Amino acid sequence: MTPNDPSSRPPSPVADAGELWAAPTAAGPLDAVVAVPGSKSLTNRYLVVAALAERPSLLRDPLVSRDTLLMADALRQLGADVVEGGHAAEGVGPEDWVVRPGPVTGGSRIDCGLAGTVMRFLPPVAALADSPVEFDGDTRARERPMGAVVEAVRQLGALVEDGGRGLLPFSVQGPAGGLRGGTVRIDASASSQFVSALLLVGARTREGLEVVHEGPPIPSLPHIRMTVEVLRDAGVLVDDSTPGRWFVEAGEINPLDVQVEPDLSNAGPFLAAAAVAGGRVRVPGWPQSTTQAGDVLRDVLDQMGADVTLDRDGLLVEGTGELYGVDLDLHEAGELAPVVTALAALASSPSRLRGIAHLRGHETDRLKALVTEVNSLGGRAEETLDGLLLHPAPLHGGVFRTYADHRMATAGAVIGLRVEGVLVEDIATTGKTLPDFPGMWASMLAGVGA
Ligand SMILES: O=C(O)C1=C[C@@H](OP(=O)(O)O)[C@@H](O)[C@H](O)C1
Ligand SMILES: C=C(OP(=O)(O)O)C(=O)O
């Protein structure tokens, strides 16, 4: 049992009132435009690729949140220079980041926080350095699956000291003379990030890198497609024509000049709000085509009863407050499970979410946490082998615990729109991927947009 293990929930839902955020109920139908900050997954991929590129890159409107600031700090430790905003050079806006690559250096300690992208993407980068790099993170980070990354980095010739646990904390010492490359075989069934991590460094090996997945199906495949697309944007040649096998050619990485798309998964709670409260919420800048898994929200919200329109002005969701249950396989978009669960808990018919066993290794054991918290408000949720079942039930107020999980916190806020007296614990945990969730939520409810 650990501090953020849902099974450690005390029997009585009493917490320090100072830690609780009274989730506002919606007084009526919404009418808001919500500008959602940049994608976490794109920002952190662009940062890594830019740090390994030949010349400086420009990231326009990156996400500025705990996960991306940790990534920027870590890359600085590894020898790159990341200049956040306020850069006077021509064509660089105050919100933009400039990344100047440098030789990858070691001798540092990387704080991964609870960011999967930092803890998985950077050990292969550290293996390019000439001296050891130590990795550690939050308490829960020490429980998140890391074995495939550790094994892969060893297959690349690096020395990893992990006390035989295959978990954080550990140190990585790359082989003298850099990475040769070759073939790495891993089981990526616990996280797509294991594959992305290796692809990101492939071009910097001498012979190119073949990654072969051996094991049960990989979750979150759109995130691997995103990695491949970002690499191609930087001129890297990637062969992904065979399922479960990727080959990245060795070669120079071109600098990037990219506009970061809004984070579509982070848009989820705001769009869900229109479905719960009725009215309309628009998210400007929704891409017409994207590799972000969050794009699936359009279909999910439509199935749950909302009207969804994608046009040049962005994505518009219009709801009536009537919500229908769904039977969904979220294997490719597990990030959405918390917000979909919140909607399903408020729906008039049962829901089944499948294909998301890997969520047990996310920020917390999300399946256990969602069942525990929905049921603590009177809901009827149960865990299955690979997902959740939710049955309609009248909900009541109470403490909604979040276990250091940003998406638990936003799920609690969605339920609170309709259920009086929901107190969300540690709302600040949303800062992992959203800089000001409470402010954005209040603006949305005021109808003026964020
Ligand atoms: O590569 C990425 O940016 C991500 C991949 C996915 O991880 P898993 O494959 O571990 O689900 C996703 O859930 C996570 O939020 C972000
Ligand atoms: C699983 C998630 O994050 P991470 O990048 O830390 O894996 C998430 O944001 O839902």
TrEMBL record:
Signal sequence segment: none
EC number: 2.5.1.19
GO MF: 3-phosphoshikimate 1-carboxyvinyltransferase activity
Record-linked InterPro entries: Enolpyruvate_Tfrase_dom, Enolpyruvate_Tfrase_sf, EPSP_synthase, EPSP_synthase_CS, RNA3'P_cycl/enolpyr_Trfase_a/b
Keyword Lipoprotein attached: no
Domain Enolpyruvate transferase: residue ranges: 27-439
Residues that hold 3-phosphoshikimate according to the record: 40-41, 45, 191-193, 220, 335, 362
Localization per record: Cytoplasm
Record: residues binding phosphoenolpyruvate: 40, 116, 144, 193, 366, 407, 432
Active-site residues (renumbered): 335
Key words, A-Z: Amino-acid biosynthesis, Aromatic amino acid biosynthesis, Cytoplasm, Transferase
Pathway(s) it belongs to: Metabolic intermediate biosynthesis; chorismate biosynthesis; chorismate from D-erythrose 4-phosphate and phosphoenolpyruvate: step 6/7
Gene3D superfamilies per record: Enolpyruvate transferase domain (3.65.10.10)
Matching CDD domains: EPSP_synthase (cd01556)
Family of the protein in this entry: Belongs to the EPSP synthase family.
Function text: Catalyzes the transfer of the enolpyruvyl moiety of phosphoenolpyruvate (PEP) to the 5-hydroxyl of shikimate-3-phosphate (S3P) to produce enolpyruvyl shikimate-3-phosphate and inorganic phosphate.
Record text on subunit structure and interactions: Monomer.
Protein name: 3-phosphoshikimate 1-carboxyvinyltransferase
Gene this protein is translated from: aroA
